[in-house]
Amino acid sequence: MTRISSFLKYHRKRLNLTQEELANKAGVGIRFIREMEQGKQTLQLNKVNQVLSLFGYSLFPSKIKLDPYEIALNLKNDIRFKYFNKAVKITLKNRMKKYGFIINEIIDFNNEISGWKFVSNNNAIKYQKNRDDKLIEIISHSDIQDIEEQ
C-alpha cells in the first residue's frame, strides 16, 4: 500500500462509498479506483487529482512521514482501526515511549487526521469503567515517530 492508496480507501470507507460509486462521482473507471487503492505505481496524475479533488485534495510533493491512514486502517485485512482498542507502544520523536490504547482519531478542519485520542495503560481500567474524558491524552500525529502493537 502507498500513502495515497490508504488515504483514498480511508476516505471512501468513511463516506460509505463503494469503489463503483466513487468512480462514478469522480468520472473515472472502476478499474482506475481499484488500481489506485491497490497502490499501482503508474497512474495518470490528472486522473489521480480528479479523484482526490472529491475530498478537497490534490497531489503535491511533501516530506515523507508516518502515514496516519495506515494507523487508522488495517489495509491487509480490510478492517478499519488497525491499532484502535489494542495495546500499542507509541514512540514519539523526542524518544519518549507511551504505552496504552488509541481510542479515536482527531480530524482537523482540513478533514485530515491530525492526532489521536489515547488512554495510557495506567488509566485504561478506569477509562473502561466510566469513559471519563479527563483520562484521555491527545497525541499529535506529527509527534509520532513509530507505533506498534505491544
Provide structural commentary.
The protein is α+β, with helices and mostly antiparallel strands and 150 residues long. It folds into two domains: 3-55, lambda repressor-like DNA-binding domains (434 Repressor (Amino-terminal Domain)), CATH 1.10.260; 68-149, Roll (SH3 type barrels). Helices cover 34% and strands 26% of the residues. It has helices at residues 3-14, 19-26, 30-37, 45-52, 68-72, 121-130; strands spanning 73-74, 79-80, 87-92, 97-107, 113-120, 137-140, 144-149. The strands form two sheets. A five-stranded antiparallel β-sheet has the order 6-5-4-3-7. Strands 1-2 form a two-stranded antiparallel sheet. Helix 2 crosses helix 3 (30-37). The longest helix has 12 residues, at 3-14. It is elongated, with a radius of gyration of 17 Å. The chain starts with a helix and ends with a strand. Residues 75-80 have low confidence and may be disordered.
Could you give the topology of this structure?
Layout: H1 3-14, H2 19-26, H3 30-37, H4 45-52, H5 68-72, E1 73-74, E2 79-80, E3 87-92, E4 97-107, E5 113-120, H6 121-130, E6 137-140, E7 144-149
Antiparallel strand pairs: 1-2, 3-4, 3-7, 4-5, 5-6
Helix pairs in contact: 2-3
